[in-house]
Amino acid sequence: xxxxxxxxxxxxxxxxxxxxxxxxxxxxxxxxxxxxxxxxxxxxxxxxxxxxxxxxxxxxxxxxxxxxxxxxxxxxxxxxxxxxxxxxxxxxxxxxxxxxxxxxxxxxxxxxxxxxxxxxxxxxxx
Length: 126
Hints:
Blueprint: E1 7-14, H1 17-28, E2 31-35, E3 43-47, E4 56-60, E5 68-74, H2 78-87, E6 91-98, E7 104-109, E8 115-120
């Protein structure tokens, strides 16, 4: 498990995900696995060489957005992080969403307009 506060996920949004996957597969040897944890979302988890599992993903935005690349920082509490970020001048651009596996994530623009995301993992089963 990555440390809280570390950059530990990335996402590339494209309306041509197959071309993006082919590029990174050929350039870096990345592999991809379809992730169905969020209903109605075409998302391909990216597995980089030596990684024990996915460390990012390719999102097929189907032309709903401009293409983008964004990093995500692991946090303990999404709501508290969003409040602190807003107090520091950030703007929330995507309210928190939780997928079927219990991972929650949100996107923001920092005080200077840079796009980034935060996410939290589900609490461990007791």
